[in-house]
Amino acid sequence: MLKKVALLCLLLTGLLIRPGAFASVPDSTLVIKKTSDFKVDGEGSASNWSAAQWFDITVQKGPRQPKSGKPFPTKVKILYSEKGIYFLFDCTDQKLTATIMEDYGALFKEDVVEVFLWPDTRYPIYFEYEVSPLNYELPILVPNMNGKAQGWKPWNYNDNTRVQHETSAQGGQKKSMASVTGWKAEFFIPYALMNPIVPSIPKSGTKWRGNFYRIDYDSETAYYSWQKTGGSFHEFEKFGTLIFE
Description:
Layout: H1 2-17, E1 29-34, E2 55-56, E3 58-60, E4 74-80, E5 84-92, E6 112-118, E7 125-131, E8 137-145, E9 148-149, E10 164-170, E11 182-190, E12 207-216, E13 222-225, E14 240-244
Parallel strand pairs: 1-4, 1-14
Antiparallel strand pairs: 2-4, 3-13, 4-5, 5-11, 6-7, 6-12, 7-8, 8-9, 10-11, 12-13, 12-14
């Protein structure tokens, strides 16, 4: 009898600790490599990107969503320079659910990728950037006081502060509601745009907090994230840590 109990315990232990028994949780720390500056083209064709590693963002439940939407592979790369931070999103997709044809629109109501950056954690203020498959953007500064968030658009948006952004479609045309196999977004956010919430230009060892998102509206809404939230992307306490190498 004791042998049978011991054997059962071993079997249960093996089930509990076997690889893949539980879904893996993304690492809450991300190391960002440094680069010289380059021009974005929406394809990620610059040789600089070879220094960065891809990481995945995966589906989670969205606001008031009973279950997660249908997932598509989605991956991201990040680099930083003396002037700002580069991002490259690669999104598998079937349809470009995008009809908004203007900057500063409610891009989050259609297909979009988003970056949230919180450089100075002494204050509940962070930068949010969204770009659609059709290359329209929404840059806002977000004060988040006691769970009440409000986005403010930049009023001094010029050549020194403007985000460089380009997108591309794979397996189809880059147009509204087109059938595709995927789309990419590549953009460069200058530190100057985030002034004054960037206390100083990042150097080796500098730490920020942040998170990375995607929303896809094919047949059912799917919300993607790096660090999981309870539904709202504005739960900044759950952001991961970005370490500048």
